[in-house]
Design brief:
Layout (H helix, E strand, L loop, with lengths): L5 E5 L3 H12 L3 E5 L17 E4 L1 H9 L3 H5 L3 E3 L1 E4 L7 E4 L8 E5 H13 L4 E4 L3 E6 L4 E6 L2 E6 L2 E4 L6 H9 L3 E16 L12 E7 L2 E7 L5 E8 L12 H11 L10 H7 L3 E9 L2 E2 L3 E3 L2 H4 L8 H18 L4 H31 L5 H16 L7 H6 L5 H33 L2
Parallel strand pairs: 1-2, 1-12, 2-8, 5-14, 12-19
Antiparallel strand pairs: 3-7, 4-7, 5-6, 9-10, 10-11, 13-16, 13-17, 14-15, 15-16, 18-19
The structure holds flavin-adenine dinucleotide (FAD).
Organism: Sphaerisporangium rubeum
Keywords: FAD, Flavoprotein, Membrane, Monooxygenase, NADP, Oxidoreductase, Pyridine nucleotide biosynthesis, Transmembrane, Transmembrane helix
EC number: 1.14.13.9
Length: 439
């Protein structure tokens, strides 16, 4: 396959637009096919998350194409979690040992618009909107789209599916017989509400990610540049306290007053918004192979959507783009060789973050509220200070480094084993001293 053949990217979301920037830099002609209308300047689509946390992996990818400063200019740094108990004062838990590192709250719409703008400003990139992929022949690269004017067809040397968790490209590869998938839907869904500015200012501290942990459920809030916060409820769909159980304004108000009393005065029209806004689906996509016929590949959520509890889905997808670019470097720009290499190099990492994201849900909704957990975090930070660079917490490695996710998981396991062995040795030594001293 030639280095400068035409590449079709299906999906002009976060991954597709960033990928277009990287491929244009390599000299490719790129067409982005997007099912939506041009999103630039439009209000965000209902039911999609409004803001997200961008951290080092995503920023590293943006830095490589000189977009980091421009994009971070519109972001709000969050240096830790503000944990809200049912009653009492919220407590701040810094993310990093020095307390100075931050993850960045950014509007999905603004990020997508900036990436789309950057991609389409490059020579060789065009974006076609209102084109929903419905058919694909991996053997020939022929694509079929549903458009406002009926069916349209196009052919490309390479077709990359960046069309998100419900990927149509993935579905076509399944039909083609080269892909099997396992889509694991979470029992919890999500719903978004807005905390508007109060007297023209933020109603909560904008330097933190706010969490209301409630055992099996939680609410989080991230700040927006217009001084509002987007609140996301992560609740079970059914059962007591689940979305389905709160079907009337009275039930919603009663539930919030009992579980989230400090949020009630911050959200005017709470029950109206609650009853109007949709419940989104969360889940993990595991599939193989991510490529077929030497010309079709999957990237980002299309290949490996994860639950959002580590704030890593988009960061991981951006890291994919860097990894695929490296594979193209290492194969002389040959997609037929680069796509399998990409899957071989990346699979273990995406599986690791999928598992860590599921585990972090339990930490966020339950453990962060426990005094024992908080003691553990303080002990971990003390170890990081005592052994700089030798003991590094999982959160720090995931959010503030580009150490591959699988290596993070292995390293954290090793660190925990060493700490457990040291704790056991210390307990034995203390026991021996106590025996020598007698009662
Ligand atoms: C509630 C929530 C909170 C999140 N928070 C974070 C966070 O804090 N940090 C983080 O890093 N990640 C977060 N994520 C994950 C992040 O949103 C995704 O990982 C990211 O959007 C993946 O980008 P993508 O471009 O691969 O897919 P998408 O963003 O889904 O984009 C896919 C694009 O393809 C288009 N498309 C779909 N089907 C077709 C078709 N048939 N034909 C043509 N076009 C099509 C879509 O319209 C869309 O534009 C969160 C997700 C959720 C649900």
């Amino acid at each position: 396959m030639t280095e400068h053949g035409e590449v079709a990217i299906v999906g002009a979301g976060l991954t597709g637009c960033l990928l277009a920037c990287f491929l244009a830099r390599r000299g490719h002609q790129v067409t982005l096919y997007e099912r939506r209308a041009d999103p630039r300047g439009r209000p965000p689509e209902r039911g999609r998350s409004i803001n997200l946390a961008l951290s080092e992996r995503g920023i590293d990818a943006l830095r490589r194409i000189g977009l980091d400063d421009r994009i971070l200019a519109g972001a709000l740094p969050m240096r830790g979690r503000m944990v809200h108990p049912v009653h009492g004062t919220p407590g701040f838990q810094p993310y990093s040992v020095r307390g100075d590192r931050a993850i960045n709250s950014i509007g999905r719409g603004a990020l997508n618009d900036a990436l789309l703008e950057a991609a389409t400003a490059l020579p060789g990139v065009r974006a076609v909107f209102g084109h929903r992929l419905t058919g694909l022949d991996p053997a020939t690269g022929e694509m079929v789209f549903r458009t406002g004017d009926g069916e349209a067809k196009a052919t490309a040397a390479v077709v990359l599916g960046a069309d998100g968790a419900g990927s149509a490209v993935r579905a076509r590869l399944k039909e083609y017989g080269t892909l099997t998938e396992d889509v694991d839907h979470l029992e919890h869904g999500y719903k978004e509400l807005t905390v508007p500015p109060r007297d023209g200012d933020f109603a909560l501290d904008p330097g933190a990610l706010h969490i209301w942990p409630r055992g099996t459920s939680m609410v989080i809030a991230l700040p927006n540049p217009d001084r509002s916060f987007t609140c996301t409820l992560f609740w079970p769909r059914t059962g007591p306290g689940g979305f389905a159980s709160l079907a009337t304004a009275e039930a919603v108000e009663r539930h919030f007053a009992a579980e989230y009393p400090d949020l009630v005065p911050l959200i005017p029209g709470l029950s109206d918004d609650y009853l109007r806004n949709p419940v989104g689906t969360l889940g993990t996509v595991r599939c193989a192979s991510w490529h077929a016929a030497g010309r079709v590949g999957l990237v980002g959520d299309a290949a490996h959507a994860i639950v959002p509890f580590y704030g890593q889905g988009a960061n991981c997808a951006f890291e994919d783009v860097v990894a695929l670019d490296r594979c193209l470097d290492d194969t002389g720009g040959d997609f037929a060789a680069a796509l399998p290499l990409f899957e071989a190099r990346r699979r273990e990492d995406t599986e690791a973050i999928a598992d860590m994201a599921l585990a972090n849900f339990v930490e966020m909704r339950d453990k962060v509220a426990s005094p024992l957990f908080q003691l553990g975090r303080r002990a971990e930070h003390a170890l990081e200070r005592a052994l700089p660079g030798r003991y590094v917490s999982r959160y720090e490695l995931v959010s503030f480094s580009t150490v591959p996710y699988a290596r993070v998981r292995r390293r954290v396991r090793r660190q925990h084993q060493v700490v457990a062995a040291l704790a056991a040795a210390a307990a034995l030594a203390l026991g021996a001293i106590a025996v020598r001293r007698g009662p």
